[in-house]
Amino acid sequence: MRKLFLLPLLAVLTGCAGLPGAEPEEVQENEPQPVVIIDDSDDFCLVSPDQITFAHQCDFLYWAGVWVNAEKTSWPERKKTIMQLGDSVPDTLTKILLSLPVDTPYQDRLRAQHWLSSVKPKLQENVAPLVETMVIAPNSEMLELESALVVLNKVNAEQAQDTQALKEELEAQRKKLEELLEVEATLMDKNRGNQQ
């Protein structure tokens, strides 16, 4: 009976801890802190304007738009665009973003990873963590998965060939066995005929 009385009291007391006047929980020291990518300025430059200047260099929304549009465009169209672009930093950034969608073939995705490696040292220090998290890590993981898939497909193809060879060998053994059984049946029939 006392337990029934204590349960509602306990529920009320624990519910009070969530009220606005309650003390906030202390942040644990081991909890990861957010990385500040954009400082207090309004500029978000991919490459420092001191090194090089190009159109949309500090326009994050422009580059996000290129990425979003790439997702909506078929691979053959994107490939055509990539072939027309040069080796400048903005062209290379565009080629990388055009190569990020999932339908990009493995070799082209791998090429984009190399382009990214060539451009990465030119990126601003505060942009590097964002590029690592949003572009490099997912793309590397997809490349690894696709490589593993290729290996598995090769193993499966070899196993299918082995299975086919075993089936053919089994069929040949079955035919030999049937022939032997026919010879044995013929010999048994001759023996019966001779005995009569």
- Residues in β-strands, percent: under 5%
The shape, in one word, is: rod-shaped
Pick out the low-confidence regions: 1-14, 34-42
Q: Element order, helices and strands?
A: HHHHHH
Helix content: 55-70%
How many helical stretches?
A: 6
Give the biggest beta sheet.
Answer: none
- Class inferred from helices and paired strands: mainly alpha
What can you tell me about this protein's structure?
This protein is rod-shaped. With 196 residues, the protein is an all-alpha fold. 9% of the residues are buried. The N terminus is likely disordered. The longest helix is centred in the last third of the chain and has 68 residues. The protein is built from six helices and no strands.
Highlighted features:
single chain; 196 residues; mainly alpha; disordered N terminus
Q: Quick summary of this structure?
A:
By secondary structure, this protein is mostly helical. The chain is built from six helices and no strands.
